[in-house]
Amino acid sequence: MSLKIKLVYNKEIRKLVKRPETIEDLKAMTQKLFGYKDFCFKYEDTEGDIITISSDSELEDAYEEAISEDIKSIKLYAEEDKSVNAIADAISGINVKNDQDMLPIKRPFINNINSYERNDYEEELRKERKYETAWDNIGCAYCSVYPITGNCYQCTICYNFNLCEDCYFDGNHMHPLVKRIKHGLFGGRNVSIYIPPSMRILNTSGVQNGETVEHGGEIIKKWTILNNGEAQWPHNCTLAKVNGQLEIDPINIPKLMPGDITEIVAVVRVQERSGIFHGEWRLQTPAFQMFGDAFKLEVVVRTLSHEEKVAKMVDMGFGEDASFASLVAHNWDLDAAIASHLIGL
Fold first, then answer.
1. Is the CATH number of domain 134-194 3.20.20?
2. Helices (H) and strands (E) in the chain, counts
3. How far apart are CA 301 and CA 211, in angstroms?
4. For the chain, does the N or the C end have fewer beta carbons within 10 angstroms?
5. Backbone angles phi and psi of 118, in degrees to 5
């Protein structure tokens, strides 16, 4: 199993592509990412204890423990080195005549620093533990990791179907998912919080509202849209009609991640008669939940007169008498009359 290494420093989390094999490798990677020179490292073992890593063998022990417990990733917490040695080195630069004069300064100062370091780190760890909950008796339906640790997502349609965070972001499940949370000091009961999909229309192009179009045929309307929510859209969302007379061809809606943008291109079928026609559509999940802004279009459909149809065919190079006869033969269907002439050419 490939062990993922995550480096945590000052609330920032970075995923390491290459696993550091030594403390020096780890320090070099950390310095490259965060810039500070002197770091010390810790991790939380499977019993919840905070273990300091000070040697290559201790770093290897951390890896082996995670692998033996079938843990997919391990977090290494980097801190600025506030150790006794570092402080003593700083103090040693002070010019004093008697080392005994330093004792009243060293001990309280070092104790205060150690206390600050411990309390500050434990506060950060408490925040991390909110997201590293172990979900007893719940496994991932895709990768089969058991139990799920960290964020857990439950399907709102399938019975007893749960995903770990990695499989959730793979986006292979077609139904809406909710993020589960735990209440209480020792886990308590599981409560699901639904994260609804969201969408905002950024701009439009193609045929515009109020534009005059010819009867019959097809027109193109485009919308640029944004996933402005906190959840990825489910697979197989559709553009569902909610009002109006205009019809559109089916459209594949991509399962956008939060912050992603895409363009929706709709082929709109125009009525055969004159008048003002409109349509309104909304995004809809496979569970028939509609979300986001409404897609709206209104057009003025105009039917050509007999004289205008004859003139249009004449402009295309057909004779006036032949155009008139062809239109009469096809009950003044312009497209059919033109097609008959093209076939006869």
1. no
2. 8, 19
3. 9
4. C
5. -65, -50
Alpha helices, DSSP H, located in the chain: 23-34, 56-68, 84-92, 103-130, 165-170, 306-315, 320-329, 334-344
Spatial distance between the Cα atoms of 125 and 11, rounded to a whole number of angstroms: 10
Residue range 173-198: mean pLDDT, rounded: 65
CA dist 279 and 151 (Å) reads 41
Tokens of 100: 């005994």
Q: What is the CATH number of domain 200-302?
A: 2.60.40.10
Q: Which residue has the higher pLDDT, 2 or 119?
A: 2
User: Which fold, 306-344?
Assistant: Helicase, Ruva Protein; domain 3 (1.10.8)
The architecture (CATH level 2) of 4-128 comes to Roll (3.10)
The β-bridge relationship of strands 152-155 and 134-135 is unpaired
Q: Same fold for the domain at 200-302 and the one at 306-344?
A: no
pTM (2 d.p.): 0.41
The predicted-structure confidence for 258-290, as pLDDT tens digits, reads as follows 899 999 999 999 888 888 999 999 999 887 888
Handedness of CA 210, 212, 213, 215 (dihedral sign): positive
Pairing of strands 162-164, 211-214: unpaired
DSSP string, 140-173: -TTT--SSEES-EEEESSSTT-EEEHHHHHHT--
Q: Residue 186: enclosing H or E segment and its boundaries?
A: none
Residues 6+ apart with CB under 8 A from 295: 201, 223, 239, 264, 266, 280, 281, 282
CA-closest candidate to residue 264, choices 239, 297, 232, 233: 239
Among candidates 71, 64, 40, which has minimal Cα distance to 53?
A: 40
Which of 309, 296, 292 is CA-nearest to residue 237?
292
Q: Do 91 and 20 touch, CB atoms closer than 8 A?
A: no
What torsion do the CA atoms of 123, 124, 125, 131 make, to the nearest 10 degrees?
Answer: 120
- Give residue 105's pLDDT band: very low, low, confident or very high (50, 70, 90): very low
